[in-house]
Specification:
Blueprint lengths: L3 H5 L5 H16 L4 H8 L3 H8 L7 H10 L4 H11 L6 E5 L8 H9 L2 E6 L10 H8 L2 H10 L10 E7 H5 L5 H14 L5 E6 L13 E5 L7 E5 L3 E5 L2 H17 L3 H19 L1
Organism: Saccharothrix syringae (Nocardiopsis syringae)
GO molecular function: DNA binding
Protein name: XRE family transcriptional regulator
């Protein structure tokens, strides 16, 4: 059997950090201190700390023991044990309860990212949607609120440098009504004035390219964390931190950057669309 020392030193992965955060939340919900848990299990404080931060592994049996000691319910145990038993291949899938907004892996990694680049083909990306736009798009009041709450991380003084690629198709496509669109485009226009968070518009005149077909978000972190990509489908979100796969999406974002207008011209185009919708609401 491996000793703590042999298991303790490793680079964390997106999956191991998600698992660690799940375990930390279980312990906190149980109202149990680190000292109480480690004493009960015969672990060192360092072992538990590294497990909860994703920088060490342990056996599924020990994770099950930890969950039992913390009194986790059946659904929580099954969800966490499924993660614990997954092979760490550099890619993993998480099914939605409603959308990607409710996934721990999304919230956890957006919260510690140094930079974010995101794109959705025919709608305004989730990280720049207003609550009214999100509600009209999804038909879900709670989801719309969660989506806006997700954006609070981007507004922190130490928040990530964020680029939101918006295709002009998304500005033409009326979601909700013209009033919703006016407010959404005004919101995007206002974001252009922020130093670390702004949209770049891909105009209708841009050349067609395969990079425009599918959504993606690329997260970059401070060392030693590797970059992470996630792509959302209707039913699940797929995460990649395998370097070869990540390179494909980094190239996609570079292509989108070349197709997009610069910051000043993006702001001008957004302002023109805001005027269009403002006239239609009068």
């Amino acid at each position: 059997m491996q000793t703590d020392e042999k298991q303790s030193t490793r680079l964390s992965t997106a999956r191991s950090r998600e698992l660690g955060e799940e375990l930390r939340r279980v312990r906190h919900r149980a109202g149990m201190s680190s000292g109480l848990v480690t004493e009960a299990l015969g672990w060192s404080l360092g072992k538990l700390s590294k497990l909860e931060t994703g920088t060490r592994g342990t056996s599924p049996w020990e994770i099950g023991t930890l969950l039992g000691r913390c009194g986790a319910d059946k659904a929580t145990r099954e969800r966490i044990m499924a993660i614990a038993n997954e092979p760490d291949t550099g890619s993993f899938l998480r099914r939605h309860a409603t959308a990607a907004d409710d996934l721990l892996a999304v919230a956890l990694h957006e919260g510690v990212a140094r930079a974010i680049a995101t794109y959705e083909p025919i709608t305004v990306p989730s990280l720049a949607q207003t609550e009214d736009y999100a509600r009209a798009l999804t038909g879900d009041h709670d989801l719309a609120g969660a989506r806006v709450a997700r954006q609070e991380n981007l507004n922190r003084a130490d928040g990530p440098d964020t680029v939101v690629y918006v295709h002009e198709i998304a500005l033409r496509l009326v979601v909700g009504d013209v009033g919703v669109m006016r407010d959404q485009v005004l919101h995007l226009t206002a974001l252009c004035g922020r130093p670390r968070y702004g949209p770049r518009v891909i105009p209708m005149t841009a050349a067609a390219h395969a990079a425009l077909r599918h959504p993606a978000t690329v997260l970059t972190f401070n060392a030693p964390f590797k970059p992470l990509v996630y792509t959302e489908t209707d039913a699940a979100t797929v995460f990649h931190d395998d370097p070869t796969t990540v390179t494909v999406y980094q190239a996609k974002m570079r292509r989108l950057h070349r197709l997009a207008l610069d910051a000043e011209r993006s702001r001008d185009l957004l302002a023109r669309w805001a005027e269009v919708y403002d006239r239609e609401t009068r």
